Amino acid sequence: MGWYFSAQSKSALIKELTAPRETENAHTITIAHKDCGEVLWSVVEVKPKTSGKPQRYIFCDLLDCHNGMWGHKPMEEAMHPYRYSCPLAYLEMTPEQSRAWRNNVRAWHAQRSDAMAA
């Protein structure tokens, strides 16, 4: 997937990315989100309109600004986004899609804790 840019502020982009959505088949709501500078982490719940249980996913939107236009590159956990600053609590809120990615998230947080303790 590529980048999507528009003439809006970063806060407006985040508001748009975290707003509830509705499609023909499902309702989607953002349960939690965190702006980590160049990455927006979100826990999104998808509720089917017909049968089936709601499912939760971790989304990673890379954020960048070019010529005053903010853009994002959407990814999800299953794509192993190679960014690991996802809040640890989000791992507890969603079923695992990528064990390797989650291990890297935990290692990233452990490394930061060790560095702060030193």
Radius of gyration, taken over Cα atoms and rounded to an integer in Å? 15 Å
Going across the biggest sheet, name each strand in turn: 1-6-5-4-3-2
- Please outline the major beta sheet: 6 strands, antiparallel
Low-confidence stretches: none
Order of helices and strands: EHEEEEEHH
**Class by helix and strand content?**
alpha+beta
**Average of pLDDT:** 94
Strand percent estimate: 35-45%
Question: Which features would summarize this protein structure in a list?
Answer:
about 120 residues, alpha+beta, six-stranded antiparallel sheet, 6 strands, globular
Quick structural gist:
The chain is of the alpha+beta class. 29% of the residues lie in helices and 38% in strands.
Task: Describe the secondary structure blueprint for this structure.
Elements: E1 4-6, H1 10-18, E2 21-22, E3 26-35, E4 39-48, E5 55-66, E6 69-76, H2 88-93, H3 99-117
Antiparallel strand pairs: 1-6, 2-3, 3-4, 4-5, 5-6
